[in-house]
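Quick one: structure tokens for this chain, please?
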Amino acid sequence: MSSLTHEKLSNIVPLLYIEPTLDKSTNPIDDELTQTMRRLLFECTTVGAYNKERQTFTVGVMYKGVHYCICGDTSTCMDYLFKNNDQIKCYATNSLCIHYLQYHRNEISKDEMKKVMDVCK
């Protein structure tokens, strides 16, 4: 019987793991931050599962379910890992990150927006 091993990466910065409480905006924001995040997610080649408590990312692992935003949008069953332009920090996020930037920007904390700006610079 063979066992699969999955690479675990540590010191990962979580990005836009938020839980909106309001309906989505009727005026989506499609600015440079949203477009850059869309490109980063589209180009991402590392997928897996982020563990918030351990701040680790397990490559190749997927969840058994999906996450639902309060407004009904649904995530994929995996998280995404990418580096910022200076290639120092690794960020983990989920597929709803673009949705949050477009439709729930007013619910994103200043600290989270600083991380978004860091990753998009």
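Helices lie at 32-43, 97-103, 110-120.
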